[in-house]
Amino acid sequence: MKQISMLGCGWLGLPLAKSLLQNGYTISGSTTSEEKILVLEKAGINPFLICLSEDKIKGEIDSFLKNSEILIIDIPPKLRLDSSENFVIKIQNLIPFIENSSVKKVLFVSSTSVYPDENTTITGDTIPNPDTESGKQLLEAEHLLQSNSNFQTIVIRFGGLIGEDRHPIKFLAGRSNIENPEAPINLIHQIDCIGIIEVILRQDSKGNETYNAAAPFHPNRKEYYTQKAIEFNLPLPQFNESKPSIGKLITSHKVEQVLGYSFSKNRL
Question: What does residue 136 show for φ and ψ, rounded to 5 degrees?
Answer without folding.
Answer: -65, -45
